[in-house]
């Protein structure tokens, strides 16, 4: 097993691939030198490869991740105690296109459900979607009874509760309406009951226009205040939908119909070395076959945004990316908050020091493909290839946004572990083997084996094959555990 890895030849730090004790003489992979370690270095944490002067940039992934708060001698721990972020507020950028390209390959096949609008579902589930939080308990009660309908082609029944739909204003209310419409028309749902109360701001008649053309057989509506017994009426509709769904069959679908969301959470110092580059390799493979991926978590692009900007396919897309980044920075500033209030305590414990450090690792998930489009929150994918999506870093909020944008599956890398799932299958990818072993009930795929050998392309192909199995019906851990939820981005005042 290697001791340390120097990711880029210009880096001033290396990352520990195992816990290293003070006094050890270790070999730096990627640098071809031996050095003495002067302090205990936890796995995933950074060590200075040479003396770093106070105020000098600290380089990782070939880019600055902050500056030194004090002199850092060679062999010492580089982390929050001696590093400061270089991030600031919104500013001007310059477009320096790198013109990346992806070789086209013939689409492979998965077994999915073809929908009338030409999209493909990787699940055939019966969904209950409240328009307002007031009817959440009714939705849960309906889900409980409707679980008896699961079987055959009816793969699951889910009620996606939330606290919104009323007492909202302006864009905040618009976001709720759009997300509810997006989820209701998702291809993973073979049948949908949209459940309203009757007096809410975002009622059924208000939300319908946001749904565009939809299958009126498969999406049904119930206003609770209009029904004498809303539970009986709801179950009648759910049984009718289940009967329709019982005739659905999986059939061969090209991978060009797949849209996969890319997300990370609870990252550690190995996330940007193992799990995220593996996801990036997967993204390139899927895009080469005509499929699409979506990268979100805008705050976790801060510090690596110019890499994405310079990969934009044209200047119009570049300008949309600049607005995406500066818009989120201004969003924080409007509340008097710093743009760099990140990483989390778990990130820091795992070896991530600054938001730049986290961002440079996070953006590895985007692979090398050009950025073909930039989506507003609650906007759906319409352009094939790599898309950027406006959403915050919060795990369930961002993952729900990916599902609303059209992702049938979300890939979620983690170095710390998490049990949650969003409305679509949520594949947990561990950055280290300890996590994969310790939380086998949460983790679907272990990228941590790269520490012991193998290549990113090999691991990416392994992940690609696993995703095709999930798309064809293999259950993810969150599905097996029954963990699926929805969270909408709250952006405004509550009345």
| Average pLDDT score | 95
- Count all strands and give the number: 23
- What gap, in angstroms, lies between the N and C termini? 58 Å
Into how many domains do the coordinates divide? 3
Radius of gyration, in angstroms, nearest whole number: 23 Å
How much helix is in the residues?
A: 25-40%
Shape: globular
Strand order of the largest sheet: 19-20-18-17-21-22-23
Beta-strand proportion: 15-25%
Please summarize the sheet with the most strands.
Answer: 7 strands, parallel
Helices, by number, come to: 13
Unreliable residue stretches: none
What keywords describe this structure?
495 residues; alpha/beta; Rossmann fold; 3 domains; seven-stranded parallel beta sheet; 13 helices; globular
Overview of this protein structure:
The protein has 495 residues and is an alpha/beta fold. The protein has three domains: 4-84, Archaeosine Trna-guanine Transglycosylase, Chain: A, domain 4 (Roll), CATH 2.30.130.110; 125-247, 3-Layer(aba) Sandwich (Rossmann fold), CATH 3.40.50; 256-481. The chain is 27% helix and 20% strand. The protein has 13 helices and 23 strands. The strands form five sheets. Strands 19-20-18-17-21-22-23 form a seven-stranded parallel beta sheet, with helices on both faces. Strands 4-3-1-2-5-8 form a six-stranded mixed beta sheet, with no helix packed on it. Strands 13-12-14-15 form a four-stranded parallel beta sheet, with helices on both faces. Strand 1 (4-5) and strand 2 form a beta hairpin. Helix 1 packs across helix 4 (230-245) and helix 5 packs across helix 12 (456-471).
């Amino acid at each position: 097993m290697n001791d340390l890895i120097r990711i880029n030849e210009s880096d001033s730090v290396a990352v520990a691939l195992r816990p290293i004790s003070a006094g050890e003489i270790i070999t730096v992979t990627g640098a071809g030198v031996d050095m003495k370690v002067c302090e205990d270095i936890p796995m995933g944490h950074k060590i200075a490869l040479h003396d770093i002067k106070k105020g000098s940039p600290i380089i990782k992934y070939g880019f600055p991740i902050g500056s030194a708060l004090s002199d850092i001698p060679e062999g010492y721990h580089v982390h929050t105690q001696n590093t400061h972020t270089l991030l600031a507020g919104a500013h001007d950028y310059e477009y320096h296109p790198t013109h990346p390209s992806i070789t086209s390959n013939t689409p492979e096949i998965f077994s999915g459900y073809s929908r009338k609008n030409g999209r493909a579902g990787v699940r055939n589930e019966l969904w209950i979607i409240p328009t307002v939080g007031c009817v959440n308990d009714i939705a849960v009660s309906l889900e409980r009874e409707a679980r008896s309908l699961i079987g055959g082609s009816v793969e699951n029944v889910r009620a996606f509760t939330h606290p919104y739909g009323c007492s909202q204003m302006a864009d905040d209310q618009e976001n709720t309406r759009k997300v509810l419409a997006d989820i209701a028309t998702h291809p993973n749902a073979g049948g949908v009951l949209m459940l309203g109360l009757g007096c809410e701001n975002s009622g059924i008649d208000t939300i319908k226009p946001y749904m565009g053309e939809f299958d009126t057989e498969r999406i049904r509506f119930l206003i609770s205040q209009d029904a004498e017994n809303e539970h009986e009426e709801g179950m009648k509709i759910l049984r009718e939908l289940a009967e329709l769904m019982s005739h659905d069959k999986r059939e061969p679908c090209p991978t060009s119909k797949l849209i996969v969301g890319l997300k990370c959470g609870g990252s550690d110092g190995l996330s940007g070395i193992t799990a995220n580059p593996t996801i990036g390799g997967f993204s390139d493979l899927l895009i080469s076959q005509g499929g699409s991926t979506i990268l979100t978590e805008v705050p976790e692009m801060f510090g690596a945004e110019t890499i994405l900007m310079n990969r934009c396919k044209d200047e119009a897309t570049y300008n949309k990316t600049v607005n995406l980044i500066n818009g989120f920075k201004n969003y924080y500033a409007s509340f008097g908050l710093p743009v760099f209030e990140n990483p989390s305590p778990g990130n820091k414990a795992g070896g991530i020091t600054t938001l730049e450090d986290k961002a440079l690792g996070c953006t590895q998930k985007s692979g090398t493909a050009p950025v073909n489009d930039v989506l507003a929150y609650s906007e759906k994918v319409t352009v094939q290839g790599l898309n950027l999506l406006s959403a915050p870093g919060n795990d369930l909020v961002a993952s729900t946004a990916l599902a609303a944008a059209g992702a049938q599956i979300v890939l979620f890398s983690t170095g710390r572990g998490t049990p949650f799932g969003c409305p679509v299958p949520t594949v947990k990818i561990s950055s280290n083997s300890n996590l994969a072993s310790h939380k086998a009930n949460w983790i679907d795929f272990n990228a941590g084996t790269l520490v012991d050998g193998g290549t990113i392309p090999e691991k990416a192909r392994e992940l690609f094959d696993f995703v095709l199995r999930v798309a064809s019906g293999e259950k993810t851990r969150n599905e097996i555990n029954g963990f699926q939820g929805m969270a909408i981005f709250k952006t405004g005042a509550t009345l």
